[in-house]
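[step 3/7] fold_predict: job queued, chain A
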Amino acid sequence: MIDRGGSRGLRVLAVANQKGGVGKTTTTINLGTALAAIGERVLVMDLDPQGNASTGLGIGPAERRRTAYDVLAGQSTLAEAVLPTAVPGLYVVPANSDLVGLESDLMDDQNRAFRLRDSLRHLEAAARSWAEEQRFNYMLIDCPPSLNLLTLNALTAAHAVLVPVQCEFFALEGISQLKETIDQIRGSLNPALEIQGVVLTMHDARTHLSREVADNVRAFFGSKVYETVIPRNTRVAEAPSYGKPILLYDYDCAGSQAYIRLATEIIERERQFKAA
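[step 4/7] structure written:
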């Protein structure tokens, strides 16, 4: 069941950064897999019109009969759009290019920023009749690389935001804008929204640039930055082309082990949050 205060039940995390190529989809897929591997029941919501999270979880275009577009357009419930993946305990609401037209389709709807939040409330009602083991513990929302209506829906529905930051020269570009957007949403649409954490991705410990960027991000966000750093890893980059999370593609590689550590760290933060 969903508790909007986040003290129990489904915890909704939006994986967001308006900069492209920072590892949002890779983080969503592999964090979801790692959480499922340690016993959590996880739902990935693909809100990117490219549908890369769906592809990376092995859901082909022909299988996406009901999608995130159908949910946000009011043509399907969230529960009806859920599909199982090859990972036990990990499910996905897939996406396709139909999402491109959502903003224009909902132009006259004054409630358009709350479509996903309202869908979650309907899922809460449905979950009351589910067995405990059928209920989701986490929803991870893979946001598109822009601050558009899709991202707005995600941030309005979420308890917290997980921000992937690539360890490269322009890493901090736009971060302040995202933080301002989060502050604005907290002040109007979703007062409970918080930054759950910032994860450094594509880190190359051999380069001075990666180390410098990591230091700058930690100086900017402080304790919000996870200790776990996701390394630049060829196996992680290869896995989506096979429709597999990295934990299925190569469990022993450095990328897999990093995402397991990240999942453990996030769970620990969640426990601290609930105990506060």
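[step 5/7] annotate
Residues 1 and 131 are 10 Å apart (CA to CA).
Strands lie at 11-15, 42-46, 83-84, 90-93, 138-142, 160-166, 194-203, 225-231.
exit 0
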